[in-house]
C-alpha cells in the first residue's frame, strides 16, 4: 500500500511478515550481513553506518569482534531508550557525540582520523571536561524516567563494559551473555 504521508523519499509500507511457526522461539538473533566476512579477513573501506560505527574504525583500525560489540551496544541503547546512542549525520558529527558522552578519545589515536571533517585536537585532550548533561546515566534517566535505580545500574554496567575506546578491552559476546548485569536485566524482562 502506498504511504499516505509525504515522505522525503518515495516508498511503500509493506504488510507484516508471517514467519513459519517453526521459526518462532525464545531467542532473538540480530545480524548485519552488509559486512559479513570470514573471521580474520581484513577490510579496507568504511562500511558501517555512522551511528553504529566503533570509533577505532575512523582512526584507521580494522574492524574486530570488539567493533561488533560497540555496534551492539549502540543497538542495545536504541532498543532500550527509543533513540540513537550517538547522534549525527556523518562520522565526524557522531565522533563528536561519542566524545561528549564518553570523554576524550585515546591520545594515541591523534593524527589517524581519516573519514572527513577534522580530527579536532580537542577530541584527544585528556584534560577536557565532559558536560554532565551528556553523561550516559543522565541521558537514560531523561529518556526512561520509568526505570528504577537497580535497573539503571544494570543497564549502565552493560553499556560501560562495551563502550570502551580500546576494542581489545571491550566485553566479548560470550562474556556479555554470562555477565551478571546482563543476566539480571534479562531476568527483569523475562516475565
Automatic annotation (TrEMBL):
Question: Which Pfam families does the UniProt entry name for this protein?
Answer: Pkinase (PF00069)
Q: Tell me, what is one Gene Ontology molecular-function annotation carried by this entry?
A: protein serine/threonine kinase activity
Residue limits of the Protein kinase domain?
1-182
Q: Which UniProt keywords apply?
A: ATP-binding, Kinase, Nucleotide-binding, Serine/threonine-protein kinase, Transferase
Is-annotated flag, keyword Nucleotide-binding? yes
Protein name, entry field: Mitogen-activated protein kinase 12
Protein's gene: Mapk12
Amino acid at each position: 500500500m502506498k504511504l499516505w504521508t509525504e515522505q522525503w523519499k518515495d516508498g511503500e509500507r509493506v504488510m507484516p511478515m508471517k514467519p513459519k511457526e517453526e521459526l518462532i522461539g525464545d531467542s532473538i538473533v540480530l545480524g548485519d550481513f552488509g559486512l559479513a566476512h570470514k573471521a580474520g579477513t581484513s577490510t579496507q573501506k568504511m562500511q558501517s553506518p555512522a551511528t553504529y560505527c566503533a570509533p577505532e574504525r575512523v582512526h584507521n583500525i580494522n574492524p574486530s569482534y570488539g567493533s561488533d560489540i560497540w555496534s551492539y551496544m549502540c543497538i542495545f541503547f536504541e532498543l532500550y531508550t527509543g533513540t540513537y546512542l550517538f547522534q549525527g549525520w556523518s562520522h565526524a558529527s557522531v565522533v563528536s557525540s561519542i566524545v561528549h558522552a564518553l570523554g576524550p578519545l585515546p591520545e594515541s589515536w591523534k593524527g589517524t582520523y581519516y573519514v572527513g571533517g577534522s580530527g579536532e585536537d580537542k577530541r584527544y585532550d585528556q584534560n577536557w571536561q565532559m558536560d554532565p548533561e551528556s553523561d550516559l546515566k543522565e541521558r537514560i534517566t531523561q529518556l526512561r524516567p520509568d526505570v528504577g535505580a537497580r535497573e539503571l545500574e544494570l543497564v549502565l554496567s552493560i553499556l560501560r563494559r562495551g563502550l570502551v575506546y580500546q576494542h581489545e578491552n571491550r566485553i566479548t559476546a560470550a562474556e556479555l551473555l554470562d555477565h551478571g548485569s546482563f543476566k539480571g536485566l534479562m531476568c527483569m524482562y523475562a516475565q
